[in-house]
Amino acid sequence: MRTSLLLLIASTAYIAVAVPLDDIGVEKAYPRYIDFPDGEGKLHTVDLEAEPDWELLSDVQRNPANNQYLLFTRRNNNRAQTLTMNNANSIRNSNYNANLPTVVIAHGWLGSQNTDINPTIRNAYLTRSDVNVIVLDWRRLALSDYATAARGVPAVGRGLGQFINFLINTAGGNLNNFHLVGFSLGAHLVGNAGRELGGRVARITGLDPAGPLWNTNSNRLNRNNAVYVEAIHTDGGTTGLGIGSAVANADFFPNGGTSQPGCLTSVCNHDRAWELFASTVTRNHLVARQCNSMLQVSRDNCSGARLNMGNDDLRKTGNGLFRVNTGRRYPF
């Protein structure tokens, strides 16, 4: 049985395998056409074999400063200040405080600065503590077709890394105080930003990292992208939108990582990752147990060490697979 499953995975057939073979689960294969949600949860049919917009990709790679960096602090918690790459005055004249922790939030496909993830996580942080929150708006690429957006993610991530270097060189700060948070495609984006910064960022949190076109992609989020990398998997089933397999130092699988209480759709499962994270920033209340295998994750019989999922701890450490069970509604 094991041999036949391994041969199946190695083939190019578009068949999803649900049985976990090892401690990091099975890499999924997707059909050519899938339904993938935008930043507001509306489904769009995606052709994973579509010809990318090479002209747009070339421009994105040439111009990493095309994206918007919007700063929020307790002095301007609802009104953004725009920080501009290679414009030192935009940094010096802002409320950016180099002595405070800095959180960067990256939305997913078809998202923008107005997507729900941004104000939700921003408000959770600013209510809890005095921090710099930078919302990355990469809509110029994110609003393109999925195949183009996915291929351009590494370049946008590198641009974010270059921006963070510019920010620190201009106004001070330390990578030990940076936390990069990304949802879906944004999770792989912040992973590439961490790679650009030599893996020296204190923490990266990937919220249900996107699965389509990323299962075997060398540019996907991985444990070397920061000092500590965490992933929260909420829609990793055979037809799920998330990658579903372990990619980080600590990989959390709430409620088994495939179907979330109170959710009837894959979109709801997928979005639950950032909803759970925002709640943990405020409350730090979801305590997971370490698991020895994905089989333990799926059977809910993990009994290892305890580790809180999510939260805002910049000095957090942990390794392995973890399961936590949550409620159906906020605060879960």
TrEMBL record:
InterPro entries given in the database record: AB_hydrolase_fold, Lipase, Lipase_N, TAG_lipase
Record's keyword terms, sorted: Secreted, Signal
Signal peptide coordinates: 1-18
CDD domains per the UniProt record, alphabetical: Pancreat_lipase_like
Subcellular location: Secreted
Limits of the Lipase domain: 62-310
The keyword Secreted belongs to this UniProt entry's keyword annotation: yes
One Pfam family here: Lipase
Keyword Glycoprotein attributed: no
Chief site of localization: secreted
Membrane-spanning parts: none
Family from the record: Belongs to the AB hydrolase superfamily. Lipase family.
Protein name as catalogued: Lipase domain-containing protein
Species of origin: Loxostege sticticalis (Beet webworm moth)
Lineage per the UniProt record: Eukaryota, Metazoa, Ecdysozoa, Arthropoda, Hexapoda
